[in-house]
Specification:
The protein has three helices and no strands. By secondary structure, the protein is an all-alpha fold. The protein has a single domain, classed as Histone, subunit A. Helix 1 packs across helix 2 and helix 2 crosses helix 3. The model has no long low-confidence stretch (mean pLDDT 92).
Length: 74
């Protein structure tokens, strides 16, 4: 089960072209989103450690996003 609130995930989906979505699909989208955030956090933390910092900065997240998504834009 995802820690993200389903209502927030549903709002994002509806605001981006999804007309109707089942409750189980919202839950699945929330779980997928959480999995991506976990991967993003791990990559970002590694970037901070490699830069000899304990604080994750925006450039760490940007680099992690680029590594995870490549040149894909959504």
């Amino acid at each position: 089960m995802a820690d993200l609130p389903n209502a927030a995930v549903k709002r994002v989906l509806l605001a981006n072209g999804v007309g109707r979505i089942s409750a189980s699909a919202v839950t699945l989208a929330a779980e997928a989103t959480q999995e991506f955030l976990v991967r993003l956090a791990k990559h970002s933390a590694t970037g901070a450690v490699n830069a000899k910092r304990r604080t994750v900065m925006d450039e760490d997240i940007a680099a992690a996003k680029a590594a995870l998504l490549g040149s894909n834009t959504f």
